[in-house]
Specification:
By secondary structure, this protein is mostly helical. Helices cover 58% and strands 9% of the residues. Helix 2 packs across helix 4 and helix 3 packs across helix 4. The longest helix is centred in the last third of the chain and has 48 residues. The chain is rod-shaped, with a radius of gyration of 31 Å.
């Protein structure tokens, strides 16, 4: 997974140079007020999504970002959308439930290969699964060894029987 930090600086270049807003004067005022902070917010959100991805969560939901930074949905959601438009994050295809029980998109870094998307197994989980597989294979090998030993014993008994029958027929 390429986890190089993205370059998020310079002038705001999305939505005609102004963060998204609706046709209300208060919304436009808010958009203008947040404009100087957008790059840092985008970087912080990208970094948190990366952190959650690297540490086995497969990325982060908007709600998780909001909770971590103690910011409102109206601040975080547009920044995630901007990161998506810039090609820095993408929908992982996985969903996690919010506090209200509704499914939420798990966002991951856009350059994440498919095997690193979604909820990751921790190394401990992978090691445990691998250990269980090894134990199961060893058990199968032991059972196969028992079957082979029984078959070899049968072959030896048959060889002895054939040898005795051959000796009887000679006399």
């Amino acid at each position: 997974m390429n986890s190089e930090k993205p370059v998020i600086d310079g002038d705001y270049d999305l939505y005609n140079g102004t963060p998204p807003y609706v046709e209300q004067d208060t919304s436009l005022i808010s958009a203008e007020e947040i404009k100087p902070h957008v790059n840092k917010l985008q970087f912080d959100i990208w970094h948190f999504i990366r952190y959650m991805q690297v540490h086995g969560k497969g990325g982060a939901t908007c709600c998780e970002v909001e909770e971590y930074y103690r910011m409102k949905h109206q601040t975080i959601s547009p920044r995630i959308r901007e990161l998506k438009i810039k090609g820095l994050v993408k929908d992982s295809g996985h969903r996690r439930k919010t506090e209200s029980g509704r499914p939420a998109i798990v966002w991951c870094l856009a350059n994440t290969p498919p095997e690193h998307m979604g909820v990751h197994e921790s190394l401990r989980d992978k090691a445990a699964r691998l250990a269980n597989t090894v134990v199961a294979l060893k058990k199968q090998l032991d059972e196969a060894d028992e079957v082979i030993a029984k078959l070899l014993n049968k072959v030896k008994r048959l060889e002895k029987k054939i040898s005795r029958n051959a000796e009887k027929s000679l006399f």
